[in-house]
Amino acid sequence: MHFNFYLLRGLRLLLFPFSFVMALVVMLRNKLYDWNFFKTTSFNLPLICVGNVSVGGTGKSPMTEMLIGWLQEDFQLATLSRGYKRKTKGYLLAGEGTTALEIGDEPMQFHQKFPHVAVAVGEERIVAVPQLLQDRPDTDVIILDDAFQHRAISAGLNILLTDYSNPYWYDWFLPSGDLRDERRSVQRAQIIVVTKCPPDMGPTEKQKIIQRIKLLAHQQVFFTCLQYATPYHILTAETKSLPAEAAVLLVCGIANPVPLKKHLEKHVAEYHQLSYSDHHIFSIDDLREMEKRFTQLEHNEKLLLTTEKDAVRLLKFGEELKRLPLYVQPVQHQVLFGEADLFKKAVVDFVLHFGKTQTHA
């Protein structure tokens, strides 16, 4: 949910006093780390943290995938996530036969798309990193997914994402806003990425945002928009472009589906949506409802569409999915203003300058 949704704004403003409690707790926790009362641990290999200071979808998963794409040819990579809403506890390394219920939907997405990358989950990352290195001692780089608030570990490169339509500098603490960390924590990031920008964003607006961020000497800022690729069938991987005359039933359980809905508004005749909560675990009743709603669509050409994150939670239905034209909509970040190479260079240089010959902690 986003603070900009007018129907929710009134209710969330009523919760404003509780935000002060959240703010005090977060600020005290950060101070205890700043004063070294709480200890932070570093490891002798490059750790790249992808995170944000707010809840909701800022594009962390496609950012992690973009980093993997940049680094996978030259380095042995691993990703480490919490594994939100999984049915297991503790550290777990993905392997053959692993499911989304065991490691969570986003790690499962990484595991399916990049089978050569070690994908691990663990609530306590300071414990999980040594276990991961023991399992995969040849690891050169670990990408920490959604770990910016996990200050028990000190990452060498922090990439912080903020949504163009809901930037951290206009936000406030939960539950009246979306912030889960204080704004000054952004100072710990080396790279700030403004995500989900308009593709035609101009240089004047870019400069206004840069001035608003107030970059420090050690920081760089980049801007990205979402780029939707050709959908593929959930079982066969057969690709199919969205027909302009089609009716689409969107099955969606992600934090911020607004950009995808805008994409569909531009590219198909009509679309309908079956909405679920973020990380929703689909049941057989949900599948029956999808079939029912899809059958009710009165259109010559129609198809079901879902996100990659939802797809890994739907795969458990196996053979039953064959009855449905269920396609998956991939999405990726596109770096604006011709700065993709500059962004990539910042990431690669961090890894190279860290030194691959150092001993793992």
TrEMBL record:
Q: In which pathway does it act?
A: Glycolipid biosynthesis; lipid IV(A) biosynthesis; lipid IV(A) from (3R)-3-hydroxytetradecanoyl-[acyl-carrier-protein] and UDP-N-acetyl-alpha-D-glucosamine: step 6/6
Cellular component aspect of the GO annotation: plasma membrane
Name of the top EC class for this enzyme? transferase
Question: Which Pfam family is an annotated match for this chain, by its short name?
Answer: LpxK
Membrane-crossing residues?
A: 6-28
NCBIfam families, per database record: lpxK
HAMAP family per UniProt:
LpxK
Q: What is this protein called?
A: Tetraacyldisaccharide 4'-kinase
